[in-house]
Protein backbone atom coordinates (compact mmCIF):
# COMPACT_ATOMS: atom_id res chain seq x y z
CA UNK A 1 0.00 0.00 0.00
CA UNK A 2 1.26 3.49 -0.84
CA UNK A 3 2.52 5.48 2.20
CA UNK A 4 0.04 8.10 3.43
CA UNK A 5 2.13 11.17 2.65
CA UNK A 6 3.01 9.84 -0.81
CA UNK A 7 -0.70 9.35 -1.50
CA UNK A 8 -1.44 12.92 -0.38
CA UNK A 9 1.27 14.30 -2.67
CA UNK A 10 -0.08 12.34 -5.65
CA UNK A 11 -3.62 13.52 -4.92
CA UNK A 12 -2.48 17.16 -4.66
CA UNK A 13 -0.57 16.92 -7.93
CA UNK A 14 -3.60 15.52 -9.75
CA UNK A 15 -5.26 18.94 -9.44
CA UNK A 16 -2.12 21.13 -9.36
CA UNK A 17 -0.05 19.58 -12.15
CA UNK A 18 1.96 22.66 -13.19
CA UNK A 19 3.44 23.09 -9.72
CA UNK A 20 5.59 19.97 -9.54
CA UNK A 21 6.42 17.62 -6.68
CA UNK A 22 8.61 19.97 -4.62
CA UNK A 23 5.82 22.54 -4.38
CA UNK A 24 3.31 19.81 -3.52
CA UNK A 25 5.48 18.57 -0.67
CA UNK A 26 5.86 22.07 0.80
CA UNK A 27 2.13 22.83 0.50
CA UNK A 28 1.17 19.60 2.28
CA UNK A 29 3.76 19.97 5.02
CA UNK A 30 2.45 23.46 5.76
CA UNK A 31 -1.08 22.06 5.96
CA UNK A 32 -0.02 19.23 8.28
CA UNK A 33 1.69 21.73 10.59
CA UNK A 34 -1.44 23.91 10.54
CA UNK A 35 -3.60 20.94 11.58
CA UNK A 36 -1.15 19.98 14.32
CA UNK A 37 -1.15 23.51 15.73
CA UNK A 38 -4.94 23.46 15.75
CA UNK A 39 -4.98 20.21 17.72
CA UNK A 40 -2.48 21.76 20.16
CA UNK A 41 -4.92 24.64 20.75
CA UNK A 42 -2.99 27.45 19.09
CA UNK A 43 -6.00 28.84 17.22
CA UNK A 44 -7.79 29.44 20.52
CA UNK A 45 -5.31 32.27 21.12
CA UNK A 46 -3.85 32.96 17.68
CA UNK A 47 -4.53 33.07 13.96
CA UNK A 48 -3.11 32.52 10.50
CA UNK A 49 -1.55 35.77 9.35
CA UNK A 50 -0.40 37.38 6.14
CA UNK A 51 0.47 35.14 3.22
CA UNK A 52 -0.49 31.95 5.10
CA UNK A 53 -4.05 33.18 5.72
CA UNK A 54 -4.37 34.23 2.10
CA UNK A 55 -3.01 30.95 0.75
CA UNK A 56 -5.09 28.55 2.82
CA UNK A 57 -8.44 30.34 2.85
CA UNK A 58 -8.43 33.30 0.47
CA UNK A 59 -7.37 31.83 -2.90
CA UNK A 60 -3.82 33.16 -3.07
CA UNK A 61 -2.05 30.66 -5.33
CA UNK A 62 1.51 31.37 -4.21
CA UNK A 63 2.63 28.73 -1.70
CA UNK A 64 4.05 30.48 1.39
CA UNK A 65 7.70 30.08 2.25
CA UNK A 66 6.80 29.89 5.96
CA UNK A 67 3.77 29.33 8.18
CA UNK A 68 2.98 32.81 9.46
CA UNK A 69 0.91 33.13 12.64
CA UNK A 70 -0.01 35.88 15.06
CA UNK A 71 -1.61 36.15 18.47
CA UNK A 72 -5.09 37.66 18.63
CA UNK A 73 -4.13 39.67 21.70
CA UNK A 74 -0.94 40.65 23.49
CA UNK A 75 2.71 39.76 23.04
CA UNK A 76 4.55 36.45 22.82
CA UNK A 77 6.20 36.49 26.25
CA UNK A 78 3.67 34.11 27.81
CA UNK A 79 3.59 31.68 24.86
CA UNK A 80 5.22 28.32 25.57
CA UNK A 81 6.49 26.77 22.32
CA UNK A 82 6.89 23.25 23.73
CA UNK A 83 3.27 22.01 23.32
CA UNK A 84 3.22 23.27 19.76
CA UNK A 85 6.43 21.76 18.47
CA UNK A 86 5.71 18.50 20.32
CA UNK A 87 2.31 18.17 18.65
CA UNK A 88 3.81 19.07 15.27
CA UNK A 89 6.54 16.45 15.73
CA UNK A 90 3.92 13.83 16.58
CA UNK A 91 2.01 14.60 13.40
CA UNK A 92 5.15 14.56 11.28
CA UNK A 93 5.97 11.04 12.53
CA UNK A 94 2.37 9.93 11.99
CA UNK A 95 2.74 10.74 8.29
CA UNK A 96 5.90 8.65 8.07
CA UNK A 97 8.30 11.60 7.91
CA UNK A 98 11.36 12.49 9.94
CA UNK A 99 12.23 15.98 11.16
CA UNK A 100 14.30 17.64 13.84
CA UNK A 101 13.07 20.75 15.65
CA UNK A 102 14.94 23.95 16.43
CA UNK A 103 13.63 26.78 18.64
CA UNK A 104 16.16 29.63 18.29
CA UNK A 105 16.34 32.31 21.01
CA UNK A 106 12.64 32.03 21.85
CA UNK A 107 12.68 34.73 24.52
CA UNK A 108 14.73 37.20 22.47
CA UNK A 109 13.43 36.95 18.92
CA UNK A 110 10.50 38.64 17.22
CA UNK A 111 8.77 36.89 15.58
CA UNK A 112 9.22 33.78 17.67
CA UNK A 113 10.16 30.87 15.43
CA UNK A 114 9.97 27.08 15.46
CA UNK A 115 12.06 25.54 12.67
CA UNK A 116 11.44 22.05 11.32
CA UNK A 117 14.27 20.38 9.40
CA UNK A 118 12.79 17.55 7.30
CA UNK A 119 15.20 14.82 6.29
CA UNK A 120 15.39 13.42 2.77
CA UNK A 121 13.99 9.90 2.47
CA UNK A 122 14.72 9.15 -1.19
CA UNK A 123 11.02 8.67 -1.93
CA UNK A 124 8.85 11.71 -1.28
CA UNK A 125 11.54 14.09 -0.01
CA UNK A 126 14.41 14.00 -2.46
CA UNK A 127 16.37 16.63 -0.55
CA UNK A 128 16.27 18.13 2.95
CA UNK A 129 13.57 20.73 3.51
CA UNK A 130 13.32 23.51 6.09
CA UNK A 131 9.99 25.02 7.16
CA UNK A 132 9.73 27.87 9.66
CA UNK A 133 6.67 28.52 11.82
CA UNK A 134 6.62 32.19 12.86
CA UNK A 135 4.50 33.42 15.78
CA UNK A 136 4.12 37.20 15.98
CA UNK A 137 2.55 39.42 18.64
CA UNK A 138 -0.97 40.68 18.03
CA UNK A 139 -0.88 42.88 14.91
CA UNK A 140 -3.04 45.50 16.64
CA UNK A 141 -6.24 46.15 18.53
CA UNK A 142 -8.12 46.92 15.30
CA UNK A 143 -7.12 43.71 13.51
CA UNK A 144 -10.15 41.50 12.85
CA UNK A 145 -10.35 37.73 12.59
CA UNK A 146 -12.65 35.07 11.16
CA UNK A 147 -12.88 31.36 11.85
CA UNK A 148 -12.53 28.50 9.42
CA UNK A 149 -12.63 24.73 9.28
CA UNK A 150 -10.14 22.54 7.46
CA UNK A 151 -11.23 19.11 6.19
CA UNK A 152 -8.04 17.38 5.02
CA UNK A 153 -5.76 15.71 5.98
CA UNK A 154 -7.68 16.01 9.27
CA UNK A 155 -10.69 18.11 10.30
CA UNK A 156 -9.63 21.05 12.46
CA UNK A 157 -10.62 24.53 13.60
CA UNK A 158 -8.60 27.51 12.36
CA UNK A 159 -8.71 31.25 12.98
CA UNK A 160 -7.28 33.79 10.53
CA UNK A 161 -7.10 37.51 9.78
CA UNK A 162 -10.04 38.69 7.72
CA UNK A 163 -9.68 40.13 4.22
CA UNK A 164 -10.02 43.86 5.08
CA UNK A 165 -7.24 43.43 7.65
CA UNK A 166 -5.05 41.58 5.14
CA UNK A 167 -5.63 44.35 2.60
CA UNK A 168 -4.59 46.93 5.21
CA UNK A 169 -1.38 44.95 5.76
CA UNK A 170 -0.81 44.98 2.00
CA UNK A 171 -1.33 48.76 1.88
CA UNK A 172 1.10 49.18 4.77
CA UNK A 173 3.82 47.18 3.00
CA UNK A 174 3.38 49.18 -0.19
CA UNK A 175 3.55 52.48 1.68
CA UNK A 176 6.22 51.80 4.26
CA UNK A 177 8.51 48.99 3.12
CA UNK A 178 11.82 49.61 1.39
CA UNK A 179 12.57 45.93 0.71
CA UNK A 180 11.92 44.68 -2.81
CA UNK A 181 10.76 41.26 -1.56
CA UNK A 182 8.15 42.78 0.77
CA UNK A 183 6.95 45.12 -1.97
CA UNK A 184 6.76 42.31 -4.53
CA UNK A 185 4.85 40.10 -2.11
CA UNK A 186 2.42 42.96 -1.42
CA UNK A 187 1.82 43.41 -5.16
CA UNK A 188 1.09 39.67 -5.45
CA UNK A 189 -1.43 39.95 -2.60
CA UNK A 190 -3.03 43.10 -4.00
CA UNK A 191 -4.33 41.34 -7.13
CA UNK A 192 -6.66 38.72 -5.54
CA UNK A 193 -7.78 41.18 -2.86
CA UNK A 194 -8.76 43.67 -5.56
CA UNK A 195 -10.52 40.96 -7.58
CA UNK A 196 -12.69 40.20 -4.52
CA UNK A 197 -13.50 43.93 -4.09
CA UNK A 198 -12.21 43.83 -0.52
CA UNK A 199 -12.56 47.10 1.45
CA UNK A 200 -9.71 48.39 3.62
CA UNK A 201 -9.73 48.09 7.42
CA UNK A 202 -8.79 51.76 7.91
CA UNK A 203 -8.56 51.83 11.74
CA UNK A 204 -6.07 48.96 11.60
CA UNK A 205 -4.05 50.59 8.80
CA UNK A 206 -3.96 53.86 10.76
CA UNK A 207 -2.75 51.94 13.81
CA UNK A 208 0.06 50.25 11.86
CA UNK A 209 1.16 53.49 10.21
CA UNK A 210 1.19 55.30 13.56
CA UNK A 211 3.37 52.61 15.14
CA UNK A 212 5.84 53.12 12.27
CA UNK A 213 5.67 56.94 12.66
CA UNK A 214 4.46 57.22 9.08
CA UNK A 215 3.19 60.77 8.40
CA UNK A 216 0.07 59.50 6.63
CA UNK A 217 -1.29 58.16 9.94
CA UNK A 218 -2.22 61.67 11.10
CA UNK A 219 -4.36 62.46 8.07
CA UNK A 220 -5.51 59.06 6.85
CA UNK A 221 -8.70 59.06 4.82
CA UNK A 222 -9.61 57.02 1.78
CA UNK A 223 -8.66 59.96 -0.45
CA UNK A 224 -5.26 60.58 1.18
CA UNK A 225 -4.57 56.83 1.09
CA UNK A 226 -5.31 56.66 -2.64
CA UNK A 227 -3.09 59.68 -3.34
CA UNK A 228 -0.20 58.37 -1.24
CA UNK A 229 -0.47 54.90 -2.79
CA UNK A 230 -0.56 56.32 -6.30
CA UNK A 231 2.61 58.34 -5.68
CA UNK A 232 4.29 55.27 -4.23
CA UNK A 233 3.17 52.95 -7.03
CA UNK A 234 4.49 55.38 -9.64
CA UNK A 235 7.96 55.24 -8.07
CA UNK A 236 8.39 51.47 -7.59
CA UNK A 237 10.96 49.32 -9.38
CA UNK A 238 8.58 46.59 -10.54
CA UNK A 239 11.26 44.45 -12.13
CA UNK A 240 13.29 44.37 -8.90
CA UNK A 241 10.17 43.57 -6.87
CA UNK A 242 9.28 40.74 -9.25
CA UNK A 243 12.77 39.26 -9.13
CA UNK A 244 12.77 39.36 -5.32
CA UNK A 245 9.26 37.97 -4.73
CA UNK A 246 8.60 35.44 -7.49
CA UNK A 247 10.40 32.10 -6.91
CA UNK A 248 13.24 31.67 -9.37
CA UNK A 249 12.19 28.13 -10.33
CA UNK A 250 8.67 29.18 -11.39
CA UNK A 251 8.12 28.45 -15.11
CA UNK A 252 7.23 31.69 -16.98
CA UNK A 253 3.68 30.60 -17.99
CA UNK A 254 2.94 29.64 -14.39
CA UNK A 255 4.40 32.91 -13.09
CA UNK A 256 2.11 34.84 -15.41
CA UNK A 257 -0.93 32.83 -14.33
CA UNK A 258 -0.21 32.90 -10.60
CA UNK A 259 1.25 36.33 -10.04
CA UNK A 260 -0.13 38.36 -12.93
CA UNK A 261 3.37 39.61 -13.70
CA UNK A 262 2.40 40.60 -17.24
CA UNK A 263 0.18 43.23 -15.59
CA UNK A 264 2.84 44.58 -13.25
CA UNK A 265 3.43 48.27 -13.81
CA UNK A 266 2.44 51.62 -12.37
CA UNK A 267 -0.44 52.19 -14.81
CA UNK A 268 -2.21 48.98 -13.83
CA UNK A 269 -1.74 49.23 -10.07
CA UNK A 270 -2.64 52.93 -10.02
CA UNK A 271 -5.84 52.13 -11.92
CA UNK A 272 -7.00 49.50 -9.42
CA UNK A 273 -6.08 51.81 -6.52
CA UNK A 274 -8.80 54.18 -7.73
CA UNK A 275 -11.29 51.38 -6.93
CA UNK A 276 -10.33 51.12 -3.24
CA UNK A 277 -13.17 51.26 -0.73
CA UNK A 278 -13.17 51.80 3.02
CA UNK A 279 -14.73 49.12 5.21
CA UNK A 280 -17.96 50.25 6.81
CA UNK A 281 -17.89 50.58 10.59
CA UNK A 282 -21.11 48.53 10.59
CA UNK A 283 -19.56 45.75 8.51
CA UNK A 284 -20.73 42.26 9.40
CA UNK A 285 -17.88 39.82 9.88
CA UNK A 286 -17.66 36.98 7.41
CA UNK A 287 -19.23 33.59 8.13
CA UNK A 288 -16.87 30.71 8.95
CA UNK A 289 -14.81 29.53 6.00
CA UNK A 290 -14.34 25.94 4.92
CA UNK A 291 -11.23 24.43 3.35
CA UNK A 292 -11.18 20.98 1.73
**Would you tell me the structural class of the helices and strands?**
alpha/beta
* CATH level-4 homologous superfamily of the largest domain: JHP933, nucleotidyltransferase-like core domain
Radius of gyration (CA) equals 19 Å
- Based on CA inertia axes, which overall geometry fits? globular
What is the ordering of alpha helices and beta strands?
A: HHEHEHEEEEEHHHHHHHE
Q: What is the CATH topology descriptor of the largest domain?
A: Nuclear Transport Factor 2, Chain: A
Question: How many structural domains can be distinguished in the coordinates?
Answer: 2
> What composes the largest sheet?
5 strands, mixed
Number of discrete helical segments: 11
Strand content range: 5-15%
Provide the fold topology.
Layout: H1 4-15, H2 21-39, E1 46-48, H3 50-57, E2 67-71, H4 82-94, E3 99-102, E4 112-118, E5 129-136, E6 145-150, E7 156-161, H5 163-176, H6 180-195, H7 202-211, H8 222-235, H9 238-245, H10 252-259, H11 266-273, E8 289-291
Parallel strand pairs: 2-5, 6-8
Antiparallel strand pairs: 1-2, 3-4, 4-5, 6-7
Amino acid sequence: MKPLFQALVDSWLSSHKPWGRDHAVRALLLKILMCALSKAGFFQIGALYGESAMYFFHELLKIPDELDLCLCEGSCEAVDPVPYHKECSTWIRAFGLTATTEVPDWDASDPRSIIFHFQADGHVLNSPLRIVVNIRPSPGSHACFVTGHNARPCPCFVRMCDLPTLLADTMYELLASSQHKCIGRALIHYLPLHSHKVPVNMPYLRERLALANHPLARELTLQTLQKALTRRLQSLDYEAAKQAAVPQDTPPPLACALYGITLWGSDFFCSITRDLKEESTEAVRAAPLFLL
